[in-house]
What does this fold into?
Amino acid sequence: MSLGSSSTGYRRSTAKGVTMVKVGTRTGLPLVPCPKCGSEVLELRASDLSKIPGQIFFKCRRHENWDPGSCPFYMLADKYEKFLRSKTFGADSPMNMEETTPELAEQVGRLQNELDHLQEEVEVLRHGLAAMNGDVQALKNGLGSVDVKCSKMMNISHLGLGCQLVVVLFVVVGVVVQPVK
It folds into this structure.
């Protein structure tokens, strides 16, 4: 399975002072330590080329499909949410699902909209940059032809200067030769 990028956020809770809880930004679900080994749990999106294209899943950072000795923790989003709900989190816990998920899901939705808007802006800027690169290339090509023309003019001016020197020599030699006659 091909993996997408992991994205996490943090949620502030005032239930026990200020507590930071890592949450998945796509689902808003808390990312609790792996129940198998205690390592970090990641929220990922499957690539479009995988067996489950576009689906969100959770896995232990130490989980590797190709390594049977790695941590086996892996769950699709719906099963992970059920797993979290089956755990007993107290009402004052920062991981109380009824309190955390709707608020975070709304925040994730706003952030996703902002991300979509920024991606559109990046695409517009990318097209503008491509157009400017074309203009720069045209200017470079134009400057190249100007350089060739300048080079030809310099050659011609050198030739002209050479002709003037020859004429001056003929005049001087002619002046010098005439009195001798």
Observations:
- Residues 1-6, 10-18, 90-95 have pLDDT under 50 and may be disordered.
- The first strand starts at residue 8 and ends at 13.
